[in-house]
């Protein structure tokens, strides 16, 4: 069964660093896009960062220059290196994947569990 498993959330002080990881589990042939979302005010969700299979990336303006996303296509994993963390980065970070092709289906979007990041001042 296809699922995304995230890890790496923790409590750190402002200015600290964390590395989030997410692995896609299942009989996966390819994943076009992997990334991270976090809830935003008003019930929206904010794209934190995403990375395509060709390595191209996209970042929210609020994290650009501080966070770096990377992926290991062979392992179906995506990472988020979070540096210079700020209290406003405190949130639950959710892994997601788009256009996941498995042995049986093409999944347009898969949402994973969240991992909690807490940044204290």
Which spans of ≥5 residues are poorly predicted at pLDDT below 50?
none
Mean pLDDT over the full residue set: 96
Task: Give the total of beta strands.
Answer: 10
Count, helices: 0
Give the helix proportion (percent range): under 10%
Q: In one word, what is the shape?
A: elongated
Distance between the ends: 40 Å
3D architecture notes:
This protein is an all-beta fold and 121 residues long. It has no helices and ten strands. It has a six-stranded mixed beta sheet, with no helix packed on it. The chain has a four-stranded antiparallel beta sheet with strand order 1-3-8-7, with no helix packed on it. The N and C termini lie far apart (40 Å). The model has no long low-confidence stretch (mean pLDDT 96).
List keywords for this structure.
121 residues, mainly beta, 6-stranded mixed beta sheet, 4-stranded antiparallel beta sheet, 10 strands
What can be said about this structure in brief?
The protein is mainly β and 121 residues long. The chain has strands at 3-7, 11-13, 18-25, 28-39, 45-52, 57-59, 67-72, 77-82, 91-102, 106-120.
């Amino acid at each position: 069964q296809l699922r995304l498993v995230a890890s790496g959330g923790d409590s750190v002080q402002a200015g600290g660093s964390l590395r989030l990881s997410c692995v896609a589990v299942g009989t996966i042939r390819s994943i076009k896009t992997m990334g991270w979302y976090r809830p935003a005010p008003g019930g929206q969700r904010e794209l934190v960062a995403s990375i395509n299979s060709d390595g191209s990336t996209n970042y929210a303006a609020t994290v650009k220059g501080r966070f770096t996303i990377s992926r290991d296509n062979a392992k179906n994993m995506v990472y988020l290196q979070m540096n210079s963390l700020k209290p406003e980065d405190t949130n639950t970070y959710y892994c997601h994947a788009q256009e996941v092709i498995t042995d049986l289906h093409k999944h347009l979007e898969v949402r994973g569990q969240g991992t909690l990041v807490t940044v204290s001042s």
